[in-house]
Amino acid sequence: MNMQRILYGVVGVLTGLLVSIVFFADFNQANAGDAAANKSKAEKVYVPYGEQDEYYMFASGGHSGQLFVYGVPSMRKIRTVPVFTPDPATGYGFDDKTKEMLGGYSWGDFHHPAVSETGGDYDGEFLFANDVGNNRVAAVDLSTFHTSDIMSLPNMGGPHAGVFVTENTEYIAMPTRFARPLAGEYAELDKYEEDYKGVVSMTTFDRKSKKFDLAYQIVLPPWSYDLSDAGKKMSKDWIVMTTYNTEFATTNLEINASQNDRDYIVMINWKRLEDEVANGNYNDVNGAKMIDPRDVPGAIFAIPVAKSPHGVDVTPDGERFIASGKLAPLMTVFSFEKAFEAIKSKDFKGEEFDIPVLPYEKVVEREVDPEGALGPLHTQFDDKGHAYNTMFISSEIVKWKVDSGEVIDRKPTYYSPGHASAAEGDTIEPDGKYIVALNKIAKDNFLSVGPSHPESMDLFDISGDKMEHLITAPTDPEPHYAQIVHRDKIKPKKIYDKDESRENSVWSQDDARIERKGDEVHVYGIAMRSKFVFDAKAERPDAVTVKQGDTVYFHMTNIDLDQDITHGFGINDYDLNFEIQPGQTNTLTFKADKAGTFPIYCTNFCSALHQEMSGYLLVEPK
Ligand code: CUK
Ligand code: CUA
Predict the structure, then answer these.
(1) Domains of the chain, with CATH numbers?
(2) Residue 377 near ligand 1, beta carbon < 6 Å
(3) d(CA 525, CA 569)
(4) How far is the CA of 406 from the centre of ligand 1 (A)?
(5) The Cytochrome oxidase subunit II copper A binding domain covers which part of the protein (predicted)?
(6) Is the CB of 567 under 6 A from ligand 2?
């Protein structure tokens, strides 16, 4: 890479707007067009009644904090799964279990989903997600599409650069975006270089208990870590991360963090660190086992890379990693084998912040010139050795050959894409059928809904030599990344397992009962079409009377073990609602501090007599 290219990059950013306008014009012309071509595209995305989409697309819900699920190729949204944010529609964050899991937070910033892997392939059991807003990691159980665990991570400053999983989901890795003093301590910005740290969290996940454990954390120089990936096959013990702000800027980052011609890719051997942690070689920092890889020979290396890269992605064969320049209009292909050789021969080019630097020319395989496309961000792959790069500034996807760097196709997106997601794109065996560009800007694609437009997603058929744009779909803010998983890998349950021994569950309406313990009232009730039963023996089994100030526990079991019969449970005027899916037991706890008569009603339409599915909460005044 030379200075000229970097200059082009800067000029590119400045002229980006102009280029976008050119592409918009192209789009309008292309669109004027060909009725026969449009018919064939429509047929490719049409899923007739009785059939289903071939793929699930799990898309981040950005600062909604939630997971969006789409069908591909129809691009129909199937479901919002609440993850980091309360959801009144399902009562997520209202019932006891989910309320505890959310820990009082009311927002999250979900950037990157990662489906659990076995042998480098999606196994479809769980999906992990990062919360950049409040330093959390979450797991969604893909048998129920319910969030099963959320863990808060200490010492982090916005875990943006994950999540990504190692080949057998040994670890869910999350590098931090903002450097910050450890343990949330105070330190002046003048102390940035000494006191601020970058951190990578390495969490494990137990599939039986469906819970996380923070295995260890890696402390790093106060650079900003950006989109990262785990090795595969020959590189499986490594993770690679791009960095920016190697300038240590603490203000006006848009200028001050773009000074250096080069930033770094950091490669870390997690296997080495795992062994060291097992040997007790760590410090306890704020409840985390903190290891400094600079104390472990062979555990960490830096490789210079074109300035301010945004992402690095490992090829499906695990042999190369590709960084995208963002401010330098090129993609750089690096070789793991070459990196390993440089490491073996101790061929270092000095140190940066005590990290041995591998010489760029010893690790690089090639620089790929995207022939004028600008703003490369993220790379995806197909099954034929091609890479696909999103180009944020020139609003397009560029298809090129990983082996030779030859650019094969460029297709406009509508508009500015962040990530793209290819079918099975992060696995050792991508499908090569579809790619979806996740765009930040929709401009005039859809009916106007005011000054803020929806985000958009472009579906392309990539099975041929040239990409074919099929459809643009709107989306709520804001998909950053998505994974597209073949439907055969997802095995959703039809109903919750009926576990007779489950705490607080009641499986027959005759067993419904109310137990009082001092000022606690426990209702062990059932929901079925089309009634609630709280106390089988009472004159009015669907009424509950408590005293003002009592703490009320509604332990509700949905005993309708039938597909898709979900009941809701709303208490009028008490700001409370939750749901109970078939075979599920949920508990809602609250203080009945308001005296009066409050209707209870099923909020989820469940039968022709759904309207009759109601009862009363009577709160006697003190
Ligand atoms: S980031 Cu959004 S476009 Cu959070 Cu994955 Cu690159
Ligand atoms: Cu039960 Cu509506």
Answers:
(1) 3-489 (2.130.10.10), 509-620 (2.60.40.420)
(2) yes
(3) 11
(4) 26
(5) 518-622
(6) yes
